[in-house]
TrEMBL record:
<dbReference type="Pfam" id="PF02784">
    <property type="entry name" value="Orn_Arg_deC_N"/>
</dbReference>
<dbReference type="InterPro" id="IPR002433">
    <property type="entry name" value="Orn_de-COase"/>
</dbReference>
<dbReference type="InterPro" id="IPR029066">
    <property type="entry name" value="PLP-binding_barrel"/>
</dbReference>
<comment type="similarity">
    <text>Belongs to the Orn/Lys/Arg decarboxylase class-II family.</text>
</comment>
<dbReference type="InterPro" id="IPR009006">
    <property type="entry name" value="Ala_racemase/Decarboxylase_C"/>
</dbReference>
<dbReference type="InterPro" id="IPR022657">
    <property type="entry name" value="De-COase2_CS"/>
</dbReference>
<keyword id="KW-0663">Pyridoxal phosphate</keyword>
<feature type="domain" description="Orn/DAP/Arg decarboxylase 2 N-terminal">
    <location>
        <begin position="33"/>
        <end position="279"/>
    </location>
</feature>
<dbReference type="InterPro" id="IPR022644">
    <property type="entry name" value="De-COase2_N"/>
</dbReference>
<protein>
    <submittedName>
        <fullName>Diaminopimelate decarboxylase</fullName>
    </submittedName>
</protein>
<dbReference type="Pfam" id="PF00278">
    <property type="entry name" value="Orn_DAP_Arg_deC"/>
</dbReference>
<dbReference type="InterPro" id="IPR000183">
    <property type="entry name" value="Orn/DAP/Arg_de-COase"/>
</dbReference>
<dbReference type="InterPro" id="IPR022643">
    <property type="entry name" value="De-COase2_C"/>
</dbReference>
<feature type="domain" description="Orn/DAP/Arg decarboxylase 2 C-terminal">
    <location>
        <begin position="26"/>
        <end position="375"/>
    </location>
</feature>
């Protein structure tokens, strides 16, 4: 039985009926996205906020669906800042990411960014110079790459080991000295985003406890009064075991206790999640164009490819999918039955693979393969110009 929601199946059928060419499309389930975002935010303990990391999927209908539920948007480039501000002039925005241009910092001040997450001492110096010259105030967090005794064991590590993200702990005294020499840029707290793809809520709670203890120690060591800690995003989606997802409500209960014990709720705790919020609302559909056998292996070539949907190639995983069978198979076209099959796209590279050697009951030409969890880091991270294939259709269920 396919796990594709009925509303998505209906939309796919309509899209299929619009064109005589085989189908390739992204379908986004916005009612489900709203429901999910609301549930995620409502679960948060008091004193916590959820910002959406626009980089996961900055499509306008997606941002529009999320805006009423999340506390704001996190942007990571001047481009994202312009995009979000142009369409959501009143939504709170925070601005992180490495390699900000001086013009990005100017823009952040002009466009009323609530907090800039400063990534290095040089960036801090530039921001202080700009704010001083323009005689304006700007609040910041310092993004710190914390040393961890126990390195997080996820597949995408942004901290705890040497990385270009944030500044090392040893920079804090210099950053505070720099801040002390001026009064335009104000420190509100610290930012940590040490990993992505976190699937284990207990490990994540352990990491957040470490942040809280560390900030408490810094407050007394450096005589600081901190009002805010950004604990980043990084909550994962279990692509290989979709039935075992991160337990958000269990995590939030644990966080509630943690905040009571370790922070006394003295600080605002902010999340900036992307993948966990939008991945489940997106579906990438490719119609099977050809099925062939080579030695002991079967291959199904789908309309589209990793130039539209880079997620499986980027994560080196077999992407979960469902099959919507066609009712009018070409009589002469081959079918793979009760065998494993490798699903590929139309690109002339062996890397254009969605899933390898996955058992199917029956897959034939004209069937629609629907990849779930395609709503984050999918279309927008893909090398869309490669081979000049047309773009997929895009449909947002309202
Ligand atoms: C600083 C920062 N914050 C938030 C995110 C969002 O991460 P995710 O989509 O895994 O929640 C990222 C992703 O790379 C990031 O680098």
């Amino acid at each position: 039985m396919p796990e594709v929601p009925v509303s998505v199946q209906r939309a796919i059928k309509e899209l299929k009926g619009q064109d005589s060419d085989p189908l390739c499309a992204y379908v986004y389930d916005l009612p489900e996205l709203r429901h999910r975002a609301q549930g995620i935010v409502e679960c948060l303990p008091p004193g916590c906020e959820m910002f959406y990391a626009a980089k996961a999927n900055p499509a306008l209908p997606v941002l529009g669906a999320l805006a009423p539920f999340v506390h704001g948007f996190e942007v990571a480039s001047g481009g994202e800042l312009d995009w979000v501000r142009r369409h959501f002039p009143d939504t709170p925005v925070i601005f992180g990411g490495p390699g900000k241009l001086a013009s990005d910092l100017e823009k952040a001040i002009d466009q009323n960014v609530e907090l800039i997450h400063v990534e290095s001492l040089l960036e801090l110096q530039r921001l202080c110079d700009i704010a001083g010259r323009r005689q304006v105030h700007q609040d910041i967090l310092l993004r710190i790459n914390l040393e961890l005794a126990d390195t997080p064991s996820t597949r995408l590590t942004m901290g705890g080991v040497p990385t270009p993200f944030g500044m090392e702990e040893a920079c804090i005294p210099d950053a505070l000295a720099l801040l002390g020499r001026q009064d335009r840029v104000r420190l509100r707290g610290f930012h940590f985003h040490l990993m992505s793809h976190q699937l284990d809520e207990k490990r994540h709670l352990g990491l957040i406890r470490h942040y809280l203890e560390t900030v408490r120690a810094w407050e007394s060591r450096y005589d600081l009064t901190i009002t805010e800690i950004n604990v980043g995003g990084g909550i994962g989606i279990n692509y290989t075991r979709p039935d075992q997802q991160f337990d958000w409500s269990g995590f939030c209960s644990g966080l509630d206790e943690l905040l009571q014990v370790y922070s006394g709720r003295a600080w605002k705790i902010r999340f900036e999640c992307g993948r966990f919020i939008t991945a489940p609302c997106g579906f990438y559909v490719g119609e099977v164009l050809d099925v062939k056998r080579c030695g002991e292996e079967w291959f199904a070539i789908c309309r589209g490819g990793t130039h539209h949907f880079r997620t499986p190639a980027a994560q080196a995983h077999d992407h979960p999918f469902d099959i919507l069978p066609t009712h009018d198979r070409e009589a002469a076209a081959p079918v793979v039955a009760n065998h494993s099959v490798t699903l590929v796209g139309q690109l002339c590279t062996p890397k254009d693979v969605f899933a390898r050697r996955v058992d199917v009951e029956s897959l034939g030409v004209g069937d629609l393969v629907v990849f779930r969890y395609a709503g984050a880091y999918a279309w927008n991270i893909s090398h869309q110009a490669f081979l000049m294939h047309p773009h997929p259709k895009e449909h947002f269920i309202e």
